[in-house]
Amino acid sequence: MELPIAARCYLRPVQFVDTPVGRDGEVARLAGGLQWFAAYELIAVVDGKRVAQRCVPVSDFARVVGGSGHEAALLDLAARLSAARAPLTLGERVLRLDQPATMGILNVTPDSFSDGGAHWDDPAAAAQAGFDMAANGAAVIDVGGESTRPGAEAVWEGDEIARTRPVIERLAASGTAVSIDTRKAAVMEAALAAGAHLVNDVAALLHDERALEVVAAAGSPVVLMHSPDPKREPHGGSGYRDVLIEVYDWLERRVGEVAAAGVDRAKILIDPGLGFGKSLQHNLTLLNGLALFHGIGCPIVLGASRKRMIGALSHEAPADSRLGGSIALALKGAELGAQLIRVHDVFETAQALRVWRGMRDAALVAR
What is the distance between the alpha carbons of residues 345 and 342, in angstroms, rounded to a whole number? Predict the structure, then answer.
């Protein structure tokens, strides 16, 4: 197989199978997890345009890419797709990434698009909501004090700290794994000092020029989310020629920059940023192509819960009536190997994932 020397090549795992039993050499494991696949979709891009797209069986992969002029890069990419992701140490807890887990959304804001106002002025009640999420199956509680919905007003960092710190202190004191959802370095510092274990930044540490320094110095895990204009606001941008490839390239580049600045690459997670500066078609393309992102070599966080795309596909259902769609997207993420599913409805999603896991376990031991 020959490919243009100038091409940049990508691999998307396809043709997922129920079990690898009896299929040695025919299937590959996805990110050290529960999913196995029988083929790669090989995509070659030159100057932003796809010039080749071909399905290559795992069993024939080495032979087909041999002599392509890109064999070393493609073999390395295939290895990254299959490599296990290192577990995360989050305080007293160790989060294994060989199966999907849930991240519970705990907004302490008056104006978040879905559940804003429920707990924003009552730290004890907010913390209790976090305890309930953990009891219902959330591996991590993601505490946020600023809405990032389209059109939301910016929040002064002092107010954001006042909203989030007392909640984080209560959760962390109980041994609950906690993340801070913020774009601001001062809020990150306050949250980490209060006991937060992970930083979740919709701006990928680009909105605040000190954010990267704070995360690197703390040595904490971090979620880097894609958005088109992170330095200003997360919903800007001017469109895409090929959203799947462009978001992949952006995240891969940003992971490299953050790692070069001193953050352990094994502690970097990525999020394609569904709904942030993306149309319905863009979001669906990213969801269907999600397995491609495993080629970056980092755990994937998927945040699709109650988002506008569900309403767009279900007669404009309001945010509080999108449970079914949220679970459908969570299961799609699990099927494509996402390691952390960020959700509002923890009990229902965790139950759905347990049933999914039971079916996977049964399939993996089938004879």
Answer: 9
Question: Residue 131: pLDDT above 70?
Answer: yes
Contacts of 98 (CB under 8 A, 6+ apart): 32, 33, 34, 84, 85
Q: Residue 95: which CATH number?
A: 3.20.20.20
Q: In sequence order, which ranges of 141-300 are alpha helices (DSSP H)?
A: 157-173, 185-194, 211-218, 243-260, 280-288
Residue 3 included in any domain: no
**Residue 122 sits in the same domain as residue 75:** no
Catalytic residue among 184, 307, 322, 360: 307
Domain that holds residue 153: 88-364
Using the predicted structure, report yes or no on whether residue 233 has a pLDDT greater than 80. no
Mean pLDDT computed over 96-116: 84
Number of residues that make up the chain: 367
Active site residue 307: yes
Q: Which of 342, 357, 360, 367 is catalytic?
A: 342
Q: For the whole model, what pTM was predicted?
A: 0.95
No. of helices (H) and no. of strands (E), the chain: 11, 14
What integer pLDDT is reported at residue 17 of this predicted model? Answer: 96
267 is catalytic: no
pLDDT score for 280: 95
Q: What percent of the chain has pLDDT over 90?
A: 87
Interatomic CA distance for residues 298 and 340, integer angstroms: 11
